[in-house]
Write a structure and sequence with these properties.
This protein has 534 residues and is an alpha+beta fold. The chain has 3 domains: 2-22 and 304-354, no CATH class; 36-268, 3-Layer(aba) Sandwich (Beta-lactamase), CATH 3.40.710; 365-443 and 493-528, Nuclear Transport Factor 2, Chain: A. The chain has 19 helices and 12 strands. The strands form 3 sheets. It has a 5-stranded antiparallel beta sheet with strand order 2-1-7-6-5, sandwiched between helices. Strands 8, 9, 10, 11 and 12 form a 5-stranded antiparallel beta sheet that branches. Helix 1 runs parallel beside helix 12 (331-354) and helix 11 runs antiparallel to helix 12. The longest helix has 24 residues, at 304-327.
């Protein structure tokens, strides 16, 4: 009798294990590798991203394998334009077309390039535009060859939000990789950019030279989150992702990048088939047999494991009755063991398909949201970062080195204020707190500064001699332009409140390690950055 009970216990344990691992058998692998389209579609489905909201490109820089999603449609590139900008300056500083000697005593071009590609400094990029290129339109014409297009051939107004296509940026990255002697130091510099964000957010395994771009156009509340990169897998690849959706997140960008890298690794490391020797001809060759179709992929519905648990419960009940009738076993104890085993199986199945089934976190997520926002508005970033889960530093605590940057930095941080706009919504281990956040709209402010700068220049020209204002090439001296800009900035900032904006969004929180923590999203980051792209 004892031996029989041991056998029964072992059988029950085996069935329990089968129940726990039932979801793993939901599909049988047919031995074929998924295509690029299938790999990409899987990531899009996981993050509920519609193909209509993305423009993506992939190029294997070794084999030439190339894929696109909406690759020829124009989209907002945001700060990704800084890649061809730096390529132009790197090339033409080397061939002497651009003369940097006037500025060498103040700063090197390398310092400017690092600020533009690593820190994504809009201020330094504008310095390059305004000082050497005579504006944005001329920049697009000069860098069109890097993008593989003819100047003026674009079918949209390219000056609106930096419109580019995914195919143009793939061409740019390929040129950058193929002709590294022509553009030295750009790829190594891009590898230092935002080492735990965008494509690199959850991808520490591969070396990635990236240039992200992020913004929200003034006439739209839909965030734009982009990245372009050269990823050094076994076979280096070029990736481009433009995304514009409320589902956009750095987790999505990173997951797509990882999927592309793993797809490339799978193909690169796949064993090459051994060539079949040429058969010796015979007089009457046998017809080749029709190949048998490979096993079809079988996908079980979600309720299949639950049905298996039900069958286990029914079979166990029948066996339990037989056991009690024939061997006079105690029904109650065995029945409870059977029911508890089935319940454990169902919980395991539910956990796999539905995630967290029940959670009772402690604390109020609204209190964490308020504490975080209070710390941000007070400039206590050490306290604010303790409430963050996905970042340890947002770069808010360090003022720029330039005089203009410091003034803008102070004005931006003085503008911060917030209000909790409703009840906090909690769903198991996640929460969302509606927030209204006020900030200084740097886009509108800079437009006003640009207009005021022209007025300041006119005043300087009227009050000073020609040689004090212009250099030997009849261009404004750098110190004159800088003086006019600083004066204009002071004038505009006297009425900084005229340029305040307010964003309404949900501040996301997650419960981890026994406490609520804030998760950054594009709306929060945009507000903290004054509404400009990275």
């Amino acid at each position: 009798m004892k031996a029989f009970r041991k056998i029964m216990a072992a059988a029950a344990a085996l069935l329990l294990c089968l129940g726990l691992f039932a979801p793993a058998f939901a599909a049988e692998d047919d031995g074929t590798d998924p295509s690029w389209d299938e790999v990409s579609a899987k990531v899009l489905a996981e993050y509920e991203m519609d193909e209509a909201n993305i423009h993506a490109g992939y190029l294997n820089l070794v084999t030439g394998e190339e894929h696109y999603i909406n690759g020829d449609e124009y989209a907002v590139a945001a700060s990704m334009y800084k890649v061809p900008l730096c390529m132009y300056f790197t090339e033409h500083l080397a061939d002497g077309t651009i003369d940097w000697s006037v500025y060498e005593q103040y700063f090197s071009y390398k310092e400017i390039q690092d600020a533009v590609l690593i820190d994504s400094s809009n201020e330094q990029a504008m310095f390059l535009f305004n000082t050497f290129l005579d504006g944005y339109d001329n920049f697009r014409a000069l860098t069109a060859p890097y993008m593989g297009v003819e100047p003026g051939s674009e079918s949209v107004d390219i000056t609106m939000y930096n419109y580019y296509t995914a195919r143009e940026f793939i061409h740019c990255l390929k040129l950058l990789y193929d002709e590294q002697d022509r553009f030295p130091d750009i790829i190594p510099t891009m590898q230092q950019a935002m080492t735990d964000r965008f494509f690199k957010y959850n991808e520490p395994r591969f070396r990635i030279a990236q240039k992200p771009g992020w913004m929200s156009p003034p006439d739209s509340y839909v965030p734009v989150l982009n990245d372009c990169a050269i990823c050094f897998t076994t076979q280096p690849i070029a990736l481009v992702m433009f995304s514009s959706s409320f589902n956009t997140s750095e987790e999505f960008l990173s997951a797509w990048c990882t999927a592309m890298c793993e797809y490339t690794e799978t193909l690169a490391n796949k064993p090459k088939p051994t060539p079949t020797p040429t058969p010796v001809p015979v007089v009457t060759p046998e017809p080749a047999p029709t190949p048998e179709p490979g096993p079809a992929r079988v996908e079980l519905p979600m309720f299949a494991p639950a049905v298996a648990v039900g069958c286990f419960l029914l079979a166990g009940l029948i066996f339990l009755i037989v056991l009690c009738l024939r061997y006079h076993a105690r029904f109650i104890g065995l029945f409870l063991a059977l029911v508890l085993s089935a319940a454990a199986m169902l919980l395991a199945v539910g956990g796999v398909y539905f995630g967290t089934v029940y959670a009772r976190p402690s604390g109020n997520p609204a209190d964490t949201a308020a504490h975080f926002l209070n710390a941000v508005c007070a400039g206590d970033y050490g306290a604010a970062y303790l409430d963050l889960r996905d970042y340890s530093d947002l770069g808010l605590s360090e003022a720029p080195a330039s005089a203009a940057g410091q003034k803008i930095y102070r004005a931006l941080h003085e503008s911060f204020s917030y209000a909790l706009a409703g009840e906090c919504r909690t769903d198991k281990l996640s929460a969302a707190q509606p927030v209204r956040f006020r900030y200084l709209d740097l886009n509108r402010m800079e437009e006003a500064v640009a207009r005021q700068t022209q007025e300041e220049v006119k005043n300087i020209v009227q009050l000073r001699s020609t040689h004090e204002v212009y250099d030997e090439n009849n261009r404004y001296r750098p110190e004159i332009a800088n003086e006019a800009y600083l004066a204009a900035l002071d004038t505009v900032l006297q009425n900084a409140r005229d340029y305040y904006a307010e964003a309404a969004f949900d501040l996301s929180l997650a419960y981890t390690d026994g406490k609520w923590q804030v998760l950054t999203n594009s709306a929060l980051l945009r507000s903290l950055a004054g509404g400009i792209g990275y």
